[in-house]
Design a protein that fits this description.
Layout lengths: L2 H6 L33 E5 L4 H12 L3 E6 L3 H13 L4 E5 L5 H15 L4 E4 L15 H22 L8 E5 L3 H4 L5 H21 L5 E5 L9 H5 L2 H5 L13 H12 L10 E2 L10
Parallel strand pairs: 1-2, 1-4, 2-3, 4-5, 5-6, 6-7
Helix pairs in contact: 2-3, 2-10, 4-5, 5-7
Organism: Allosphingosinicella indica
Family: Belongs to the short-chain dehydrogenases/reductases (SDR) family.
GO molecular function: oxidoreductase activity, acting on CH-OH group of donors
Length: 285
Amino acid sequence: MSDTDTVDMIHEDALPGHESELEPKPEWAPRYPGSGRLDGKVAIVTGADSGIGRAVAALYAREGADIAIVYLCEHDDAAKTKAIVEKEGRKAITIAGDLGEKDFCESVIAQTIDAFGRLDILVNNAGEQHSDKEITDITEEQLKRTFQSNIFSMFFLVQAARPHLKKGAAIVNCTSVTSYQGEKELLDYSSTKGAITSFTRALSENLIGEGIRVNGVAPGPIWTPLNPFGGSSKEKLATFGEKTPIGRPGQPNEVAPSFLFLACEDSSYMSGQVLHPNGGTIVGS
C-alpha cells in the first residue's frame, strides 16, 4: 500500500491523529527495568505508532521481544516507536496500511514472518472512534469503517496468524470500559468494543485446547491522540477522565503492564479474561 493510499484514509475529523502534535505528550516510557519475561519472543502490536500501542511496544521490547509496529499513516510517530524499540536493544519493523482490509492484514503477518521467522504474541490494539451526539448523525460510511477498523481487523489478523501461532502463544485484544458501561456519544465505537469482548471470550474457547491463550484489556479514559483529534466532543475533552474515581485520565504506560502480564507466563492460568485499567471504575466482568 502506498503512502498516498494511507494518507487518503485520514478521516474528516483528523483521526487517527499524530502524537507528535499532541500536548501534553502522553507518557509511554516503561516505569521499571526489564526482567526478560518476553526474551526471544516476536510480537505484532497494531496501533503501535502512538498511545497505548507505543507504550506496549516499548515495554515488550524492554522485556526482550522484537516488534512489528503496525499503523495507518502516521509515519513520524511510527519511526519514533521503532527508535524506542531499537534503543532497548531489540529489532523492529514498521508496516503501514488499513487493518480494515483483509489483504493488508495477511500482508502484516507475512511481513512479520519474513522478518523474524516466528510469531508469539498478537496485540490487537488499533481502533478508531468518532463522537456523535445523535444516532442519526452516524453515517453508513462511518459505521462500516468503525466496525472494519475495530473488530473486522481482529478477525482478519487472527485468521492470517493462526497457522503461525504455536502452543504458548498469546493474543491480547484491546476492548474498552465502554463495552461494559456504554457511552452515549460513542454508539458505534461502544458497540465494536462489546463485540471485541465477546470475540475475546469465544476465541479463547476456540484456541485454548491448542495451548494458545486469548485475553483482553479494557482501558478507561487514557490520554492518547484518539480523543483530542476528533474522538471526543470538545465538551467531554474539557473534563476528560475527571469522572473516574481517581479523578484524572490514565497514561499509556499505566495500561501497558496489563498487556505485558497477559502476554507472558505470569498469566499462564488465564484465558478468556479482561483486565480493567480504568481509574477505579467498577464494572461487571
